Amino acid sequence: MKAPRAAGPATGLATGQAILSRRGFLATTAGAAAAAGAATALTAGGLASLISACDSAAVNADLLTQLPVPGPFNPVTWPISARNRPIADGMRAEQDATLAVFTWPGRIAAQCLDKFARKHGCLVKLTTFGSMSDAIATLASKNSRFDVLLGVPIATLGTVIGRNLVQPLNHSYIPNISQAWPQFTNPFYDQNWQYTVPYTIYTTGIGWRKDLVDADPYAMVNGWELLWNAKYTGRVAILDDYREAISLGLLAGGLADLNTPDPLLIDGAASSLTELASLARPKLDNTAFRQLATGRTWVQHAWSGQIAAAIKNLPPGTPPDVLGYWFPPDGSGPVANDMITIPRSAQNPVLAHLFMNFMLDVPNAMTNAGGIGYMQPLRWMTPRRLVTHGILPADLISTAVLEDYFYRCLKELQLPVATDALWQQAFQSVVAHMQLAESS
After folding, report:
1. Average pLDDT over residues 49-78
2. Does 30 have pLDDT greater than 60?
3. Alpha-carbon torsion 353, 356, 361, 366, what sign?
């Protein structure tokens, strides 16, 4: 018997809200408390003093636990300290410079970097990182000399600001912010966009090969369960990201609080993924754009931009309609954005501001979307225009992100330190079970 759908769309703010039921999961977590931890309220002056106290590479962990946790009901205006001020107005771009960009693999189109370099008579050096933990460690080192940190998620923004690893912005260099969706000119995680401009936007869902899989998640009561199928053993992958993976376990079990502090719910999500490990031997993988395209995987937990980018990696003669992407039509799935920031140690801060402005210009954003598959939250960049301009095939319109998703879909927010540790521990347990299942 199929479980009933929850009434109404998910809001992204629910605590322990049921969406759909997956067998056995809710029984193990029935009655579990789901009270979310609340950050201690700080006055503007108190927050400024706290961040000032964090103004060194060797940061006391206790100080970081006192930083506020931004959320839609807890918007944060980060202070600007006297020792970390924005650059002055009207400065010339640095001459004969090399702009050092630090980002995830595959998250900026080479055509955009080349165009920026030609426009400003500079060189661009691209360096990639594999995780935000690695990126933060690199930025905190004494030898860090990056000008642009690209791809910062909401969940780690408080850490990079709280540790004074990024500098506040001078808005006079970034007029193209006017092209962004209005909500990103005063986002809850960085009121008045003092440290960030928006970059890519994406949902998390399920990508699959329609020519290799005989099921359709849109025809299922709970599309997340497509992964839990022994028929696809060895051809399944989930995101190698502790927040996304544990969130998958929650969603498969019918829960919508993707920021829960409840140990029972977190352990239940990990148990669901452990069951998946035994059933289908999934891989941990963040390269769906290659794996699905080449048929190494058939069903993959993925970010929407990865599936859009997979088109370019299909074998010659393979039509794009072999690719499918499922995101819950009722909005009960994760939606997210990441940001561009300027490291405090930037050697070319004017060029870095100009780069931010460049990436907020529609023609460059369209070129970028065509190269990497990810949209940006710009008013002109609608799903229909992405299709009309040949950037996105109509069969993959489900990978497009709508503005109202950020009001009605689910969000993975920054977690309090103690809760974050529970999520990471649960993920490490899942990884160990996956490795054991693969070797058996």
Report:
1. 71
2. no
3. positive
